[in-house]
Amino acid sequence: MSAEYAKLAATDGTILITGRTGAGKTHLARELHNLSRRRAGKFMAINLATLSENLIESELFGHERGAFSGADTRRVGKLEIANGGTVFLDEIGELPLRIQTKLLEALNSRTISPVGSNRELQLDVRIIAATNKDLKREVEAGRFREDLYFRLNTFEISMPELASQPDRIVSLAENFAREASRLQNRPFLGLDPGFQHALRGYSWPGNVRELKNAMEYAVALNGEGPLEAASLPNYVRQGRGAALQEKGTPARYFPSDYRAAKQEFERNYLQEVLLRFGGGVNRTAKETGISKVTLIDKIRRYDIDVPAIKYEAHMAAKAKVTA
């Protein structure tokens, strides 16, 4: 990490990280947390683009038992869980205006109130937000509150394309390869010169996510000794990053981690089906062909908030009746 980033980590101000999808915004946010005075506290990352409006509110602020139809238990929000630590709000540009207002009030007052509660809880978290959108344009278009933009943008970090940072490519690759070696129970003996040369010669259109996947692949295929270029995917060794996109069109990221992509799809699919059937587990199991036991297991595994889904379905039905 650069000296400039290290100085920002030492402060307690909010940080806005901008850059393309996959540029490593989450990785940087975690590094900033680990170098901050809050490193002993929790680091909570929330991808706002994957949640509906009511799920976002419950995820951030929590809700009380009985706050809405289906809220059978109290849910503690991520802001409360992370007290003393850092909350990373990824894709902040996707935050609905109503929740933007509530978040701004929470940041200004340093308190939060769970849905359905009059209690005020003290808030002691550092907020790091990230977006791949131009928030100034979002403000001009009326889709993002100007006051929240300035509140989040105490410090701004613009993440450049990974291909423009050859030294960072090697540094990140080493970190990812070391972690992959640990998970695969293999020794990590470094990156040989040919491996590093191949990394620098590829354009990395998928940015940091693509690099991480490539390191997992290389560790799995490499023999004994330092990682060699022969263990990299063919397209990396041949430097064909730019050829993966049509001429004149923006680079697109295609995840090579099939399991992660499948899990993300399954979580989103189950949330949508549950919403369609008002949060009913029995009906969802019947319509999807998944056994109730398996469905409940997946709901727990993916931390799907069924009470919040029931509330969203209830509000949608109510709005339809009154329309």
Provide a concise account of the structure shown.
By secondary structure, the chain is an alpha/beta fold. It contains 15 helices and nine strands. The chain folds into three domains: 3-158, Rossmann fold (3-Layer(aba) Sandwich); 162-244, Helicase, Ruva Protein, domain 3, CATH 1.10.8; 258-322, Arc Repressor Mutant, subunit A, CATH 1.10.10.
Summed up, the domain count is 3
Query: Radius of gyration, rounded?
Result: 22 Å
CATH class of the largest domain: Alpha Beta
**Main sheet: strand order:** 2-5-8-1-9
Q: State the shape.
A: globular
CATH architecture of the largest domain: 3-Layer(aba) Sandwich
Separate helix tally: 15
Class by SSE composition: alpha/beta
pLDDT under 50 segments (min length 5)? Answer: 241-257
CATH-level-4 superfamily name of the largest domain:
P-loop containing nucleotide triphosphate hydrolases
Order of helices and strands: HEHEHEEHEHEEEHHEHHHHHHHH
Q: Can you give the helix content as a percent range?
A: 40-55%
Oligomeric assembly: single chain
Q: Main beta sheet, described?
A: 5 strands, parallel
Number of strands: 9
Proportion in β-strands = 5-15%
CATH topology description of the largest domain: Rossmann fold
